Amino acid sequence: MKLTQAQLAKYMDHTMLKPEATAEMIDKTVEEARKYNTASVCINPYWVKRVHEGLEGADVNTCTVIGFPLGATSTASKVFETKQAIADGADEIDMVINIGELKGGNDQAVEDDIRAVAEATHAEGKLLKVIIENCLLTDEEKKRASKLTVKGGVDFVKTSTGFSTSGAKAQDVKLMREAVGPDFKIKAAGGIHSLAEAYDMIEAGANRLGVSASVKILEEAAKQD
Predict the structure, then answer these.
(1) pLDDT per residue over 97-113, tens digit each?
(2) Residue range 113-125: average pLDDT?
(3) Residue 21 backbone class (left: φ over 0; alpha: ψ -120 to 50; beta: rest)
(4) How far is the C-alpha of 186 from the C-alpha of 203, rounded, in Å?
(5) Per-residue DSSP letter, 47
(6) Which residues pair with 96 in a beta bridge?
(7) Which 8-state DSSP code applies to residue 22?
(8) Which residues contact 101 (CB under 8 A, 6 or more apart)?
(9) Is 187 a catalytic residue?
(10) 126, 129, 147, 158: the active-site residue
(11) How high is the mean pLDDT of the chain?
C-alpha cells in the first residue's frame, strides 16, 4: 500500500490528549495539523475553543473526547459535555461507551447511552465516533459493541482511547469490519507509531487513524512520495 503524504494526512486525527498538555503544547499540535492538513486535531474538551480558533481558515476539523477515558460517566453528563463542546467549536465528538454495562450484558443501556449522544451530536450537524475500548473486551464483546454503535446511529466505531492496557490492533479492526459491514466507518487509535502500522490499520479496514505521532509518520510518507 502506498498513499501520498497529503492522502495519508486526511486519515489522521492529530491527537494531543495528555493530561499534562499545556497551552503551548496544544498550539504546537494545531500548528502541525495546519502544516500537514490532517483530518482533525483531537484534544480534551477544555481546549476545544482554543483549537477551534487556532484552526480558523484551515481545512482541519476540531475533534474532542467525551466521557473520556473510562466511559463510566452518566448519559446526562455525556450529553451535556457534547453540547458544550459543540458550542465551543467542536466538529467531531469521540465518546467512550459504558464498558461495564457492555461486559455485564446490559446492551440496552449501552445502546441508549450511545443514541443519546448521537442525537445531541447530529442535531448540530456534527460527527460522532464511539470508542469501545477493545483491549478490555473479548472478541464476542467487540463484535457486540461494534453492532451497538451501528444501532445507536453514529458515524464511526473506534478501537481505543489509548489510555488503557493497549491500543489499536489490526486484527481487531478486521473483526470490527466484519461486525459492522463494508460501509460503516472505523477509527483505529492508540499505539500507531510508524508508517507501516498506519498502513496495517488502513488495510485492515480503518477509515480514520487517531495518532499522536502524526508528524513522524507523515515525514516517513514524504520520503516515499
Answers:
(1) 999 999 999 999 999 99
(2) 98
(3) beta
(4) 12
(5) G
(6) 131
(7) -
(8) 109, 110, 113
(9) yes
(10) 158
(11) 97
